[in-house]
Amino acid sequence: MKFRLLRFVSLLLLSIVLITACNSTTTVTSRPQPLPLRVGYSLWAGHFPMAIAQEKGFFQAQGVKVEPVYSENFLVPLSNFSANKNDGVAVPLGSVMSKLGQNPDAKIVLVTDQSAGADALLVQRDIKSVADLKGKRIGTKLGDFGELFVTKILETKGLSTQDVSLVNIEAEAIPAFLKSGEIQAGQTWEPYLSQAVKSGAKVLFTSKQTPGLIPDVIVFHGNVVRDRPQDVKAFIRAWFQAQDYWKANPEESKTIIAKTLNIKPETISTDGIKLSSLQDNLKAFTPGSTTQSLYHTAKLYADFYTRTGGLSAAPDIQKLIDSSFVQQLQKVN
């Protein structure tokens, strides 16, 4: 009798345990997925590897989620970066330098390209030389890299900005202002350069004559570099992968870019632009005394903006430029 009672109690307890186990729920805490890196870029061929990397899945293959944010106007991505809407931005070095007051934690991690003829000073047909610019109205985006570019052009003939009238005009508007006669010269870049030439303007001076003065770079906020270094590293690996793919598959890449950005394939060209390889980056991220070095070029802009009032104080170039990522890639390769 005792044996039967003990057996009954044991079975009852076992049933209760089984029922409880079946009815209970197990809560598993999963690691939150990181948000994609939001990186802004604009209508400049040196930035187009962004579209290729996204469409071909190179970012994902390298282990990072990226949300490219495109705008035709090159000022919009930088403004969004300054407003902390984006984690990073592809932008001319001079533009970064002009906005350091708003982005004191900015970190340059990559040089995407160098302008080698795609930026230019366009003039009306009656202007034959840089010396003829004296007394003329020249359009450029004041307080940005274009102003320094124009300044350097004038210096080749002993002129300064005091000898001309600088007019604050964005690059995309230069063709129309030249055609109307409101300005006699204007600084712009492709594809607006070609538009102006078709409308009757001529090229007087290009960035090919100022090598290294207008590099474009990838910039991330300092907290992104600090908290997500592996994502930044993966982004750079995918960028170089996209550059290589573009070189090996130019027609397919042109189709991808045109479709992604909703632009005409015939407007896509790297003429006048030198895409920067890993080796180019290693040279750029080495301190030097010429514009081959990013440190030297950044100081040129810093000195210019400090002198002209764009910056209230000289920035710390060493803190601005982070060479660690390209150096790590060198060790891997």
Automatic annotation (TrEMBL):
<protein>
    <submittedName>
        <fullName>Aliphatic sulfonate ABC transporter substrate-binding protein</fullName>
    </submittedName>
</protein>
<keyword id="KW-0732">Signal</keyword>
<feature type="domain" description="SsuA/THI5-like">
    <location>
        <begin position="45"/>
        <end position="252"/>
    </location>
</feature>
<feature type="signal peptide">
    <location>
        <begin position="1"/>
        <end position="21"/>
    </location>
</feature>
<dbReference type="InterPro" id="IPR015168">
    <property type="entry name" value="SsuA/THI5"/>
</dbReference>
<dbReference type="Pfam" id="PF09084">
    <property type="entry name" value="NMT1"/>
</dbReference>
<comment type="similarity">
    <text>Belongs to the bacterial solute-binding protein SsuA/TauA family.</text>
</comment>
<keyword id="KW-0813">Transport</keyword>
<dbReference type="InterPro" id="IPR010067">
    <property type="entry name" value="ABC_SsuA_sub-bd"/>
</dbReference>
